Amino acid sequence: MTHRRDFLKTSTLLGFGAAVPGFLGKTAFATPNADKAGAKETILVVVQLTGGNDGLNTVIPRKDAEYVKLRPTIGVPQDDVLKLNDDYGLHPMMEGAAKLYADGLMTIVHGVGYPNPSQSHFRSMDIWNVGHLRESITEGWLGQAMFQNKAGAFHLGGETAPLALQGGTVKAPSIASLAEFQRKFLSGNAADASEQESLVRSTSNGEAGGNDLLDFVQRTATTTYAAGDRLKLLNKNYEAKQPYPTNGLGGKLKLAAQLIDANLGARIYYVSMDGFDTHAGQGGKAGAHANLLGEFSSAVTAFVRDLEARGHGKRVTVLAFSEFGRRAKENGSRGTDHGSGAPLMLFGGGLKGGIVGEHPSLTKLHEGNLVHTVDFRRAYASILKDRLGVEPEKVIGKGHDPLPLFAG
Amino acid sequence: MNIDQHWKRYEPSSANPWTLAKAGHLLRRTGFGPTTSELQQALNDGPQPTLDRLFSEAKHSTDAAQASEYAARERSLPRDAGGTQLAAWWLHRILNGSKPLHEKICLFWHDHFATSIVKVQQARFMLGHYRLLSELALGDFRKLVNGMSFDPAMMIWLDTVESRKGKPNENYARELMELFTLGIGNYTEADIREAARAFTGYELLNNRIVFSPRKHDDGDKTVFGSTGNWNGDDIVRLCLAKPACAEFIVRKLYRFFFSDLAAPTDDRVRTAAALYREANYDATTLLQAMLRSEHFFSPTVYRRKVKSPIEFAVGIVRGLEGNIGALPLAQRLENLGQQLFAPPSVKGWDGGRSWLNAQTLLLRGNLASALTSTRDSAFTDRCDPVKFLKGDVSPVDSLTKLFLQDDLPESAKDKLAAYADAHPKGDGIRSLTHLICSLPEFQLA
């Protein structure tokens, strides 16, 4: 565990005597457009779809009678499926994503999962967040990657920071919006405010006296102040090249684009979108799940196109995953129960594009669930190696051949 | 292996004296933050008499006469009351009530049976859910779980109202085992599927729960190797019969009342669980044993919990003997990640370290400022440190004693004193209070 004192060795940011976490230290004196080592590094943006996205209604078999039989009410009519190739297509609400696919900016990996899939939201999400099937889980796959490559990360959103980001040398700041990152002090003048700010920062740097929890609070405080300072310098007049939808994910990805464009040096951005646990009233072509996919597609499309226009297209990859898929057959509540074997979706410029792997069989199910055809850790291996510059073995262990996801 | 060995009762001695810091610890853990006089009284009385009083007050809360109070306030809450108003309803009870231990335990059970108005959408059902928790918070766990199985809010939340013979919905059966009674690893998927069949035949019609026998699966079910025509109560009985159940609850209570850092030892879990089972799952018996113990007052438990947003905020308000509106505070607590009656998922709030990130730490600081500045339009001057201190000649001493029982680094206290000397009046005192509530130590319960 890195002692907070290590932070104090790097140069200060704004003269308050505050410690600066590693990744911010690299860009401490940089203005947003300055040329520096981190500028051309590749970036991973993870979109977590929380609740268990129904993969079978996302990437849809186009001419499969079994699909129609399994989903009498929530099945998407075959004519409405957006064609990707002869056999598969996307849900009709994913027009933006379908265009990205046509432009070679989307890769789909069929049937991703792991052996003995857990049907518990929490256990399965933990497995995806950690990149491992072991019981003891304190560090995430991205946190460990950051530990290896010393990169930084941001978690964007109001919810709990994901386990995936834990384990790095610094705590990834969680940010909901740029505006909220201003600390308020009651003061008659700037000198008084400054005095108070200084007191708050210096009292965050004390000794924890053996209390790991106090140490954690102090480290969080340090991260907070440093990140807040850096963010104050961001260009406030950011104009998106392609308009972002005003939905939740759109807002988060727009914030990510701003932070990426500001060249803060962070290489991982993590956002999540909730609502996918569609046990009842899921809908088919239209309805609850369709709306979620529409939000997802429009937000990711705006993000990818915006970054492309700003020259970041090739270096940013979006990975969208969910903790499991859902049962092949719909249930009695016009919804689906927890399942497995859903597809992974990746977006961005550095990808090979297309569909990878084999779709799970719709007839040879296991207790009603799709049987995965590829282990998710093979996708992680590819990302770790080709996007984050980390030896996969060091994070997810041996035995997972990287999938061929990236070009060149 | 007996309860006294691992949960030895705390009797103050010269080797392990009763201190203001321990009194603060006790009052924070059994409530939402003490006042100066509560601290002083606890210091004078000692730990066991204080606990006697806290438990006795809390017990009185479960009196059914309270129900009329609920009803009256329910009428004042429109049927389609939004989430914030509902949260404010409970927050008002917490701010103005005199039974902190009872509300604290209700909060524990609310987190445990995490049910959210976001899906239930009916404030009255959520209030009914709260009433169930409130009546049985310190009582019979079996009755509580059975009540939950057929609580309208819960039935909507976990889709029991959609579950019928031939097409059972597994959601409630799964969470009953995974989250409410046993924990992962103590049941199989088959147990869940079979148990789900018992929770069938209930529907929500015209805002009432209606049971249709013909939609109920009354066939034989096999759960945990036991076969019979099980109904919901039987499933609960089978879950509680497993040793894992009592242990699961003990561990959860330990996490909530003792420590965010360390799990309890196996011996402590086993002995407490045995006591809980022997007492027929009576919560008071278990909690008394746990909270009266030397271990509860030990250094490995002291300041080893992060204050939840509500503890952070209410601690400031109660400490300053303020009188603020519950609704604006409820709104701020939402941003800090804790909206009562709207947990983020059926797993409840992660709590502990997850309460704090760059965003929430900043928001806590800004909330402390808003509460104490007298300039915030929502809180105005109803929590004014200047009024509270009434010309106190040593505000630093009084405030650090109140909020931290003087347990903070010398260097921090010196800096605060220097600031107070330079800004001795009015806004200076308000800022001083804000600065104290911004200390890392103040984030810990």
Please characterize this protein's 3D structure.
The complex is a heterodimer of chains A (408) and B (445). Chain A has helices at residues 5-8, 22-26, 65-70, 95-102, 121-130, 141-149, 190-202, 212-232, 248-261, 288-309, 376-386, 392-396; strands at residues 43-49, 59-61, 82-83, 88-90, 106-113, 152-156, 174-175, 266-273, 316-322, 342-348, 354-356, 374-375. With 408 residues, chain A is of the alpha/beta class. Chain A has a single domain, classed as Alkaline Phosphatase, subunit A, CATH 3.40.720.10. In chain A, strands 1, 5, 6, 7, 8, 9, 10, 11 and 12 form a 9-stranded mixed beta sheet that branches. Chain A has a 3-stranded antiparallel beta sheet with strand order 2-4-3. With 445 residues, chain B is mostly helical. Chain B starts with a helix and ends in an 8-residue tail after the last helix. Chain B has a two-stranded antiparallel sheet with strand order 1-2. Chain B has a two-stranded antiparallel ribbon with strand order 3-4. Chain B contains 24 helices and 4 strands. Chains A and B meet through helix 5, strand 7, helix 7 and helix 8 of A and helix 12, helix 20, helix 23 and helix 24 of B.
Summarize the structure.
The complex is a heterodimer of chains A (408) and B (445). Chain A has 408 residues and is of the alpha/beta class.
